[in-house]
Amino acid sequence: MTPSTPVQDLATQWSSARKLYPVYFEMAREFAIEVKPCAELESGVETPGKDAVEHANQWIEHMDGAIQVHQLRQFLQTSAAVSQEGLVTLLQHFLAKPNKTDAIRDKIDFLLVQQFSQIAPAGLDDATVDLAYVANAMEPVLGAIELKPPVWLNSLDRVLDAARKCKSLDELLHGGVLEQGRKAKGLAGELFYLPVALAAFTRFGYLMRRAFFRLMLGDLNLILDGLTELEDRGIETIDCRRAQFSAQEPVVRLRMICQSWKVMFQAEYSSGSPLRMLVDLRASVEHALGRGKGPEGDGKPKPDAAAKAAAPAKAAVAAKPLVAQAKPAAAKPAPPPAAKAAVPPVAKAAIPVAAAKAGAGPATAKTAMAKPAAAPAKAVTPAGSKAKAAAAPQAEAPEFEVSRSPGWDPESASQPPKKK
Q1: 83: CB partners within 8 A, 6+ apart
Q2: Is residue 190 part of a domain?
Q3: Which domain holds residue 333?
Q4: Are 92 and 107 in contact, with CB atoms under 8 Å apart?
Q5: Per-residue model confidence as pLDDT tens digits over 92-141
Q6: How many structural domains are present in the chain?
Q7: Residue 359 near residue 214, CB atoms below 8 Å
Q8: How far is residue 9's CA from residue 11's CA, in Å, rounded to a whole number?
Q9: Could you tell me the sign of the dihedral formed by the alpha carbons of 378, 380, 384, 385, in that order?
Q10: Distance between CA atoms of 213 and 149, rounded to whole angstroms?
Q11: Per the domain annotation, does 336 fall within a domain?
Q12: pTM reported for the whole predicted model
């Protein structure tokens, strides 16, 4: 006979579900996840029966599977709906799960770094962020941690050292460094959830964010310096097709775009196409200055004259989401209504707010990028409540990833021992 669930356990489960419900329901609306409201949680009952608690748990469990890691990351970094207490509730919720999939592990990994980033003081020096510092800061969530890390965790320091040696964002994204970090997390298996390992991966993720953020701002500054040099030479347009702009992109427009990126990147963190654009834009500017390789795809057929004439107009449409309300001084013919933006809107990216706190003095953890205007909800059911959410589903987007890098063969000493 199965024993009945203790009253305290039911109360704890109900309390957790009530805290998670508004966050999950808002995420369902944000990303057009089809789910009906939970009547029991909507009722606001303080002391529900066992059936009500079980139904609420089933609703939360369904949403746990429906919400992808990249969606959780984007929502928490661009929404004010989650308080510090809510972040801890989410973290404790996933840590308490008896069966942890890779997706749950990645959510825990992100939430740990996000939590530490929010409580860490601004201007914290990298050297100060050792394992003992992180363990002490995360004790309210992880409990007391015995600071005797196993040998296999040393691989994280090697990855951090490699990241610090990177000279550009391109080198970090495509040099295999990020793949090494993912490999280390995957090799950990169930040992990832050892308290000392959770603290070590929290430290690793935080310091990797800082390395990423510094390189990203460094690339932006180099691009802006290069654009200034081009203007001094009297060059008004450059070939930026590799960065999804036109073959004759005005330097003045590129400057405005980079300035808007610089402001936005002080608050958030991006992965995917916008980062590729940043890397490729730096390469385009360096090529225009005679310092880099030619544009990719030189061997492809050249566009005809009509396509060349239409390119600047399309680029203007593409650049619009990136520069917000900024407009170039010279007026240009309006693009035809059917023209589509070739550049993915950077507003759909998500750079951890913590990155600003970790690497930029002026920015605050509360800073948030302006999001595109969303259509108001038309129904109680989240599905279809926001037009922009239709494009939200996508392949899982790990942090700092643009494309997969070559595999990594760790040293035998760095591999975690297998559980017997």
Answers
A1: none
A2: no
A3: 214-295+307-371
A4: no
A5: 999 999 999 999 999 999 999 999 999 999 889 999 999 999 999 999 99
A6: 1
A7: yes
A8: 5
A9: positive
A10: 27
A11: yes
A12: 0.67
